[in-house]
Amino acid sequence: MATLYVIGIGPGGEDHFTRAMEKAIGASEVLVGYTPYMAYLGDRVQNKEIISTGMKSEIERCKAAIDQVKAGKTTSIISTGDAGLYGMAGPILELAPEDMDIQVLPGVSANFASAARLGAPIMHDFVTISLSDLLTPWELILKRVAMAVEGDFVITIYNPRSKGRPNHLRQVLDLMMDRGIEGSRPVGIVKNAGREGEVIYRTQLDQVDVEVVDMLSCVIIGNSKTYWKGDFMVTPRGYENK
Amino acid sequence: MATLYVIGIGPGGEDHFTRAMEKAIGASEVLVGYTPYMAYLGDRVQNKEIISTGMKSEIERCKAAIDQVKAGKTTSIISTGDAGLYGMAGPILELAPEDMDIQVLPGVSANFASAARLGAPIMHDFVTISLSDLLTPWELILKRVAMAVEGDFVITIYNPRSKGRPNHLRQVLDLMMDRGIEGSRPVGIVKNAGREGEVIYRTQLDQVDVEVVDMLSCVIIGNSKTYWKGDFMVTPRGYENK
């Protein structure tokens, strides 16, 4: 029986490919993905049938992958990061028939990739929130930010800012300060984590320049115990004194 | 100059090793880790100096790794999951001198590994909370659970239950229902995700048998939109109707 592999290849560079992904891609007749991501696969695309489409065609890509498996061809659908977080695993499982053999392979998510470049900013209880309001009401997003502040979570933000929503990040950072986070709270921003064009910004809550942030950036706001140690953003493992 | 690599090798099986980890381990003279985890490295330990210690000696392991690097030996300190989440990256950066060359390599975290085995339960905004109160006040943990419920986050729980805290998970699940989550909310539990001895439980909030849960289990509670589709736990990507 043909298998559908749902693969998030990590932040982009092949350094974060896992052995399970290499095997799945190797076993696939067909590779489906967003055109720019296919370049990360390098030679692995040789002798494969390739179906690649533009940014807005996620659902179309999912349907194409499902159709290939229905036609008996083992197929990998490729995204970046981990396919299970704002990725392709959800739409694939929503659209595929229940009896299809589907294997979701875990990968290195953009927030952990960004965190590693900053040091150890996550380390403790954390939340991940996307600021994209395409599919989620903006009021719910703001409520989640407020709850995250109230719970003193480390906060990692996806889709912080784009041309279509230039002010979302600014609004959220202001809300955090309104809700009582001090201006000196450490903030790390990583653009293109772990791939070409990587930029790291080390700053604090009241000094974030939102203009440097784009939709490929991950923004990490520390909890009340997070501090900078040289270039490293460090969240201690606990609240007690050692 | 010697380098200290901080590596979370993923859930355990070598299937989730990344190429960056293989390179770092290959470049290391010394490997430091918790004794049972060193077995996951297989032949990679050959011709290396190995420093392994028991469960309670995390800080001791960190100090040993730092000392090796101070002595000029490139060293990898190994944990499972991602080293940046409840892992070794924090204590290493807290304890090491500022001028040491430290590289944190991101890995596949236990919650994403567990999520992949369940299908796509995370997919949207989520929180991760550890129920270990060794270093965090229990009241703060309960407050975080309440905030997570209020924000309708997907909730992933680490360290849900151990001999020393047999009732923590029960208390937290009861709090979730007190706070208004319906009993039919999907819950997935994965023990030993992605390695030998893996067990997957598919259930709902008011039917969780906490007796099957141990400290190596990850518990995932869906948000208000999460549903079961056959064996797959699926959280849709958004709140709007397509």
Rg of chain A, Cα atoms, Å = 19 Å
Spatial arrangement of strands, main beta sheet of chain A: 3-2-4-1-5
The residue fraction in helices of chain A comes out at 25-40%
How many individual helices of chain A? Answer: 7
Number of strands of chain A: 13
Oligomer: homodimer
N- to C-terminal distance of chain A: 55 Å
Largest sheet properties of chain A: 5 strands, parallel
What is the H/E order of chain A? EHEHEHEHEHEEHEHEEEEE
Mean pLDDT across residues of chain A: 95
Low-confidence stretches of chain A: none
Class from helix and strand fractions of chain A: alpha/beta
- Name the chain pair with the biggest interface and residue counts per chain: A-B, 74 and 74 residues
Range of strand content of chain A: 25-35%
Report the principal-axis shape of chain A: elongated
Molecular structure report:
Chain A is α/β, with parallel strands linked by helices and 242 residues long. Helices cover 27% and strands 25% of the residues of chain A. The first copy, chain A, contains 7 helices and 13 strands. In chain A, the strands form 3 sheets. A 5-stranded parallel sheet of chain A has the order 3-2-4-1-5, sandwiched between helices. In chain A, strand 12 (227-229) and strand 13 (232-234) form a beta hairpin. The termini of chain A are far apart. In chain A, 51% of the residues are buried. The interface between A and B is large, with 74 and 74 residues.
